[in-house]
Amino acid sequence: MSKVHTLDHPLIQHKLTYLRKKETGTKEFRELTDEIASLMAYEVTRDLSTQNIEIETPIAKTQSEVISGKKLAVVPILRAGLGMVDGVVDLVPAAKVGHVGLYRDPETLEPVEYYCKMPTDIGSRELIMVDPMLATGGTAVAALEFVKNRGAKNIKFMCLVAAPEGIEELQAAHPDVDIYTAAVDEKLNDHAYIVPGLGDAGDRLFGTK
Ligand code: URA
Fold first, then answer.
1. Which residues are noted in the entry as uracil-binding (predicted)?
2. DSSP β-ladder status, 50-56 and 61-67
């Protein structure tokens, strides 16, 4: 069973509070999402392996650590996941970015992939899938299936707010994928919005309604 990591750092929690407030406008919402994603990425990348290399400071030769081994890929689920990409890439500039987009077929209610473009070496990268809201889990489960079909293996899922229902669904379908979230909220309402949540993350990020 995968783990759920709730990142309760005071800076993350403070920014999340302002993100949730209904008065927060698009500009601030975007900035806060970016900042929280960066702070979360710091924790999500904690187990990246490092190696010692020899360098020379102005004073002496020394051994010092650099990141080694597997490289990173960030994969936003379109569209709201886009708001979290820059925050991660700012910290790991060498990361490649894949994209996955899906919609729900109105008749079968099955998720249908309309876009999926991954780095060619996706199988040898650590992948961080990002989407602000883990609500029912349906989209995340399908998006993870799509990237696994393209060869992705080491995957973490990072969101801002998760509902217990979505966590359960994701863990059942992808027990190998750890979940990193800034908060686990109470429940979903009848319209599959997270309560208390923050509303529609995509609309608030992009100023649509
Ligand atoms: N997607 C959102 O943007 N918000 C929710 O509360 C649930 C799904």
1. 194, 199-201
2. antiparallel
